[in-house]
Amino acid sequence: MALRPIRLIGDDVLRKKAKKVERVNDFIRTLLDDMADTMYKHDGVGLAGNQIGVLKRVIVVDDGAGLLQLVNPVITEQSGSQTGTEGCLSLPDIYGDVERYDKITVKALDHRGIKVKIEAEGYLARILQHEIDHLEGKVFIDTASNIHEEKAASSEEIAEDKESNEEAVKEKLLSNPID
Ligand code: ZN
Asked: How far apart are CA 126 and CA 98, in angstroms?
C-alpha cells in the first residue's frame, strides 16, 4: 500500500490535460493501486491522475458498489440531466451544485488492459464525469453553482456565526490542507 500526496487547487497540474496511456503495464497497475489506496484513505469516491500529479489518463472510482480502475476513459454516450452537490479531494471542505448527464456510457481499459464498457447512471455517472473532467484540466467549481465551504464534522468546534466559521475553514485549509 502506498499513499500519494493529493495536489490541491492552485497547483497547475490540476489545470493540465492528461495524456493517453499507451500500454497498461505494471507501472500503470501500481499507479492505479496507489490511487485506490489514496482515495480510500481520504474517504473519497473518485480520484484522477492529475490529483496526484501524474498527467496520465487514469481514474479510480468507487460509488460504494466496488472499485473501478479505468485507463483512457471516454464518454461515448450521454443522456438526461441531474443536479447534485459535489466535493473534491483537491478542494477540501468546498462544495457546490453541478449539473451532469444522468446516464452515460464510458469506454476504457481496465487494469489488465482489457476493453471495458460501463453503463452508469445517477451517482456513479456523476463521479465518472467529475473524474474524466479532471483529465481535461477541469475542476467542478468551474461549472458549479451555490459554492460554499463546510467544516468537516470531525474537526474542532463549530463556530457560532457563519463569518467566523468561514474564517476557521480558511485557516484549516491553510494549516492542514489534507486531513
Ligand atoms: Zn475531484
From this structure: 9
